[in-house]
Structures are given as C-alpha cells and as structure tokens.
Input
Amino acid sequence: ISDSAMFAAGIPSILASLRGVSYMQVDVCGPSADLHSGSYGGAVINPATELARLLASLHHDDGRIAVDGFYDRVREWEPDILAQMRELPFDDERFRAETGAPALGGESGFTTLERLWTRPTCDVHGFLSGYTSEGAKTVLPSTAMAKLSCRLVPDQEPREIHRRIEKHITQRARRGITVKVTYINGCRPWRADVRGPLLNAARRALLSVFPNEPVIVGEGGTLPIVTELEQTLGTPVLLAGFGLPGHNAHAPNEWISDENIQLGARAIAALWDEYASEKRNGS
Amino acid sequence: ISDSAMFAAGIPSILASLRGVSYMQVDVCGPSADLHSGSYGGAVINPATELARLLASLHHDDGRIAVDGFYDRVREWEPDILAQMRELPFDDERFRAETGAPALGGESGFTTLERLWTRPTCDVHGFLSGYTSEGAKTVLPSTAMAKLSCRLVPDQEPREIHRRIEKHITQRARRGITVKVTYINGCRPWRADVRGPLLNAARRALLSVFPNEPVIVGEGGTLPIVTELEQTLGTPVLLAGFGLPGHNAHAPNEWISDENIQLGARAIAALWDEYASEKRNGS
Output
C-alpha cells in the first residue's frame, strides 16, 4: 500500500505503525428545559459546567490520560526503532509553523514524533451547549454534548477504551445530571513486524532506486483496511508511499512529484523480485 | 415597583435583594485551521480540551467559586433576615420538579433559597467548538468559545469580577493557545434597607389588605432600573409584587390572579397614607 509519505525528499520510508481510533459522543442532561440563570442559577447543576469538568478530568496536568487502565495494553516499542526515530531530522519549528499554533505541546517526556506515532491520545472534536450566538443570553442550558476520540496504539482495543472512558465519566458525574457515553465507531491500531523477509525485501528494493537507506516511520492517523487485509488474508502488509511532506494529503491541491512517481514505480517493481528471492532463500 | 412575586398565596412579600450580573465571553484559539486529529493529535494543544479545563477550574468540588478574591466584597446578610429566610415554607422537591432536573445542587452549606438569593454564581450559558453534527469527524478544532456570567450579590462589582475571571483564566492558559475574556455587559446587585420608614409603611399597608404578616424575600435575577432609580433620585426603592409562584414570569401564559390585582391595588393605595404618616412621625 502506498497511501503514505516519505519522511523527506530522497529518504524512502517504510510505514511501521498506524494509530487506531475509538470515537464516542458524551451527552449530559440536566433540567428538562433551559432555565433562567437568575431565578435558578446556583441551585441547579449546570450541564455545560459539568461537561467541562468531566472533559477536563480526562487528562492529568502533564498531558497523560487520567482514565483508569487506559495504558494497560500499550505495547513497548523496540528500543532500536525508537532510537532511529529520535535520529530522524524532524524540525519542531517547521511542524509548529505548519499548524499555525503559538506553540506545540502534549504528553510530558516524549518528542513530537513519539507523541504522534507511539502514544495514544484523547481529543475533543467538538462540543455544543446552550446559547452560542452574538451578545448575551442568560440561559442555564438543559443539555450539553461533546464528540471525542482516542487515537490508539497497539494493543489497545477500541471498545475497551470506550468502556473505560464511559466508566471514568459516569463515575464522576454529579447527582443533578444524567450522562451518556455512546460509542460511534472505532478501528484497531497496527504495527508492522519490521524484521521479516517482506521488510528485508522492501529495504533492498527502495535502496535500489533512492539515494538513501530507507527509514522506519510511524503515522498518527488510521487506515482501517490494513488490519482487515492482514486478518482476512493472513499475510503481512507493507506500507511504503512516495508522497512528500506538505503534499496536502486529503486536502485541496494534493500533489505528488513526477520524479517520485517514477522512482516509486521502479521500487515496487523491484520489490517483487526481492521478495521472491527472500522467500527462496528463507525456504 | 411591583415586578416581583409573593412567596405564596396570601403571604405578601417585600423584595429585599436582587442579584447583579457580569457577563463575558471566553475565546480560545490554537492552530490557524482545524487539523486532522490523527496526523496532529497528541502534539498540538487542543483548544476545546483547554477551554473545558479552564471552565472546570472556575469551581472547587464543593461548588465554591475558585477565582482569587471573588468573594472579597460579598457583604454578610443580617442574621435575623437569614433566620426568617430559613423559616419560609420552601419546598425543595416542588422546586426540583419545576426544573425537571434529577436532583438539585450547588454550593455546600447553603439552602436552596440562600443559594438563589444570597450567594453569587458562575454559570456557563453555552459553548461551541469544532464538529457537533451527527456521527464522527476527527477534527482537531482550531477554536473554542464559551459564554458565561456571574450572578453577583452586594457589594460585588461587575467589571471587577470580569477582571478577576479574566486573570484566573489567562494565568492558567497553556502555551499552545491564546485566550481572550471579553466583557459583554453587567449590572450591580442590590439590597434594600429593610429597617427604614418606607419599609415600615409597606409592612403596615400590606398587612391591611392581606391576611398574613409580610415576609422579606430575595430574588436571584436582576432589575437594572432599581439601582438606577436609587442613584438618580437619591431615594430608597420599594419592591412588592403580587404575582404568585408558577406565574410563568416572562414566559408564555404569564398570568396574575384577579384577586391579587384588587388586593395589590388597595395595598399600594394604603402605602401612600402609611408612608406620609411615617414621614410625619419621623420628622
């Protein structure tokens, strides 16, 4: 599968991990209708305030996720892969400028690439409650909702993560509101075995057309087909793509260089010979 | 001014307090555009998560407001007024049923009426961020906003409360976002002097047409005209209204009983004589 990018121009890249996802919606209900915040405020639990409190409880101050058992199934990465990842010429400032955020941030003790490729997350995608137009309306809203998901790393399970978040939130909900945490969808995370004959063949094939040794990279996003193919066909899946950083994946003006189309096609052609030869030698 | 209600049928009521309000909007900005939560999640500070954390920081777990100096100007109530308030036949369960909430709640150590009439609040009126429609969209939102206000009690000042909240929030904002707390509008709280000649006259006038002694009540809402009248005319303001609980104030099907219109008119007519006689005796 070539639905991925090279780490940098001239550096062929084998994608060794994808994060999974567990997506859910949180609904908080309080009074049966919006109330006047003067006549009722202070004596009725506010669903918007409560939802904010529940969402805030999902993280510790150091960025670590505070949900009981959340990290239980997180598998350690091989130290040599981590070491190689730390040596990749990644530019935090260029990445920050790409996002437009005033600064980067995340779980303490990890580099940006580790945060993106090797660590799970819990992100709010949106929330809505009460009055949100111009000016002032002094309503005490009857409901509040949020969309959130966790990006997962091996061997976290989407439905188990949903159950853990659901338990965390419902246990902390105050009397005076009801809360529901609904599973919307999910996908398992994925890690390649970077030591088998397929990967050896891929390394040689890539090196035969690109000027540098291939590097192992991760990806923070999700490709649900990968685990499906592995499970259904019972065979390893190789991911090596030929896009370049800034190629606007899935966005307007997505592009790929002419040169990389040529080089990529030659590398894939070479892969079949290399893999056949690996299999012959290995058998 | 008769823009208030009686505590119960047959119990004439003098309104001795109104809460003020300080209304503001909180805007959090992070990345310059919404980002893919897989490709960026974990390494970029999420404005929605941050806004939730900042809103959650406004209260302690016991419902007390956690903003430095927030209670500094709160004036103690006279013990005899508080004692009379505790004796009013207020039915928490009826009030709860009226709201439709599963339970009441608020600042620890206070009754429902004290929470509504004598204590300041901090309520979220609404918030909005990112994706809030059906199903799933894995966006890391670039902005998040909330409307909130504090109901104030004497002698809290609307603009001072805004500055305190602004300081609380901006001090706690992480690098990776910018935050703005914009004052929208406000109104000072009000307390009547319940011991002067005007109040004595009102008590006698009300007792002359209703079957019970008048009670002193408070109100959680705001009537900006009251402080304006006092300041502009330099004279005390009396609030005694003749609506009944459940009269749907400001709502569809607002109503007042024929009997209370008659009794109220007679009480107000009596008030002028009583007040004139008070002034004669007092001078």
